[in-house]
Amino acid sequence: MSLKEPDYEAVWRNSNLGWVGLFYLAQGIAFGALVFLPAYLRYLGLSDFDSILWQSIILLPWYLKIIFGILSDNLPLKSWGRRKPYIFIAAAFGLIGWLSIPFIGATFGFGILLVIVGLLASTGAAMSDAVIDAMAVDVTPPRKRGSIQGVSWGFRGLGLGLAAVGMGLLSFADLWAWVFLIPGVLLALFTFLTLIIKENPLPPDFSAVPFSTYKEVFSTRNVQICLLFQVLAGIAIAIVPILQTLLEQGLGFDLITVGIIFMIFAIGWFLGAIIIGVLGDTVSLRTMLPVATALYIISVISALILAPYLFTMTIAAGFFFLVGLANGGYEATYMRIGMDNSPSILGGTMMNLYNSLSNIGQLGIGAIIIAFMAIYVFGGNYILGLQITILFFILALIASWYLIKKPKEE
């Protein structure tokens, strides 16, 4: 099967940016509930470290997004297309899990049932994210890839911020049920709306992607390097899953203040992703990635200098706004590299393999490393624990240099 790219312009509509943006806004709100999960688990009686550990387990589907990509690449439903059946399943599947979390938690407390429904909600969110990522690869021309990544990561960040404020207020009022009911309903609704996006038609004789195509793609040096790059970049930006814990346990803010600061962080994230994403359509990645990396490293080092002042809400809010700018710009840039190294015929597999490895790095390895360093090495100092990410930013930049220095292999 040929790796020839499809006619993107035949199906591309600028309105796709809007539908994708709305989905990622809702997905950010839902992901915010998952990021906020350690606070709920502590409410149910778990320790700081155990709550982060169980959060990493419940986020397991995010590490395995490649499975959903492979399914949508190889098992289309001809009348519905390649991606849309799985979008529908993800919305319905996830809604059940989200609606079940507060009932199970209130009735049985923490236990295996809560982990199961948490995994169900997480699976629905991860599957919709995986398949819509794949659809974006299928329909987005190269001239719009910076914009689509900027919109995706920007609105995701904005949704996370809205979630942080809302969840801070709801949890403070002991309305934990709504922390999960609202994101679940919104995510299902906006996932269904992406069914409006027009897909590229499959060849009439399409059945599945042959093994030879997988072999051809995975034999390219670009893909091999990009796999390593995604893991390292994911570890580097692991501040996101531990931010709520850093603000609450590390800096001592109450949940409402945590929500406000997280919202300000998310506004920075939104602006950084949109600005850098749009610039990425015109400015070379050879320029954008080193700049985004340098900005993030500067913000991490600055946390050490400002540490004595970060216990003041206004200073913390201003600082984390700047961290959000760096985070949004970096995410839009490094996922653009993944998109550029995802042939459309394997768009679901490759984009979600990159995402899975990035999520393993960010939500699993990185979050646990930072928490371990902060709690067990630095006596609860999350700012010091965060400094380990600098090493991974540097390693990611080194790994990516071949990808951004030379043109993609055909």
Radius of gyration: 20 Å
Please, what is the CATH homologous superfamily?
MFS general substrate transporter like domains
- Count of spatially separate domains: 1
Tally of strands = 0
Instruction: Note poorly predicted spans.
Output: none
| Derived structural class | mainly alpha
Q: Name the average pLDDT.
A: 84
How many helices? The count is 19
What is the CATH first-level class name?
Mainly Alpha
Distance between the termini: 14 Å
- The percentage of residues in β strands lies in under 5%
| Major sheet summary line | none
Instruction: Kindly report the CATH topology.
Output: Growth Hormone, Chain: A
Helix content: over 70%
Shape: globular
What order do the helices and strands come in, and which of them pair?
Elements: H1 8-11, H2 15-35, H3 37-43, H4 48-58, H5 60-63, H6 65-74, H7 84-108, H8 112-139, H9 145-172, H10 176-193, H11 211-218, H12 221-236, H13 239-250, H14 255-279, H15 285-306, H16 313-340, H17 347-377, H18 382-386, H19 389-405
Helix pairs in contact: 2-8, 2-9, 2-10, 3-4, 4-17, 6-8, 6-17, 7-8, 7-10, 8-17, 9-10, 9-14, 9-16, 12-17, 12-19, 13-14, 13-17, 14-16, 15-16, 15-19
Brief rundown of the structure:
The protein is an all-alpha fold. The protein has 19 helices and no strands.
Can you tell me about this structure?
By secondary structure, the chain is mainly alpha-helical. Helix content is 78%, strand content 0%. The chain contains 19 helices and no strands. The radius of gyration is 20 Å and the shape is globular. The model has no long low-confidence stretch (mean pLDDT 84).
